[in-house]
């Protein structure tokens, strides 16, 4: 059996991107192993069913619109790469990294916004909460600030209070521990997740690439 280490390049230390955590934290993704693998290995990514060009165009348009609206309200606005951060864990090894779409500051008011062009998901809320927690630790312009959060959809805005951060710290810590652990996390392959996963069958032999045969439903229960 071929080992993963002979196929992919192992990272020196675990490196975790925020969006890998947010979907696990609300059970939108069940397969912990995919995030574990991304955190521990550099690998050749396989094309997914996701239309990145279309998404980038719509996302950039929404971000630019919000920047203009916030600047018109008198905010100083920091965009995308300005808001990139890397937080080193207490173990001195694990890093959690991310890049918030927008941080807007005016006086003592500080807001982090994430722009979403798709339908609302629970992970959207969790992603913004992670930004609210980590940006004050990793972004110079956010240090010492209590951030409010906003999820900006095409036709609505969801507000998240600064106090909401305290309620999810335990879940965040447990998820980071699972993904950063030296022991591989559990695999839960399914067509729903695998079709959008960039980890190919080369690295994950359990990957599901097509619907499984239907199970016979003959019974006398009802």
Structure annotation, total helices: 6
Could you say which structural class the secondary elements and strand pairing correspond to? alpha+beta
Number of strands: 10
Main β-sheet: number of strands, strand sense, barrel status? 5 strands, mixed
Shape: globular
Pick out the low-confidence regions: none
Beta-strand percentage? 15-25%
Report the end-to-end length measured between terminal Cα atoms. Answer: 46 Å
Global mean pLDDT: 93
Quick recap:
The chain has helices at 18-25, 32-40, 52-72, 122-138, 169-180, 191-194; strands at residues 9-10, 15-17, 41-42, 76-79, 84-88, 95-99, 102-106, 109-115, 148-152, 157-160. It is of the alpha+beta class and 222 residues long. The longest helix is centred in the first third of the chain and has 21 residues, at 52-72.
Task: Explain what this protein looks like in three dimensions.
The N and C termini lie far apart (46 Å). It is built from six helices and ten strands; from the N terminus they run ββααβαβββββαββαα. The strands form three sheets. It has a five-stranded mixed sheet, sandwiched between helices. Strands 2-6-5 form a three-stranded mixed sheet. The chain has a two-stranded antiparallel ribbon with strand order 1-3. The radius of gyration is 20 Å and the shape is globular. Helix content is 32%, strand content 19%. It has helices at 18-25, 32-40, 52-72, 122-138, 169-180, 191-194; strands spanning 9-10, 15-17, 41-42, 76-79, 84-88, 95-99, 102-106, 109-115, 148-152, 157-160. Helix 1 crosses helix 4 (122-138). The mean pLDDT is 93. Helix 4 links the parallel strand 8 (109-115) and strand 9 (148-152). By secondary structure, it is an alpha+beta fold.
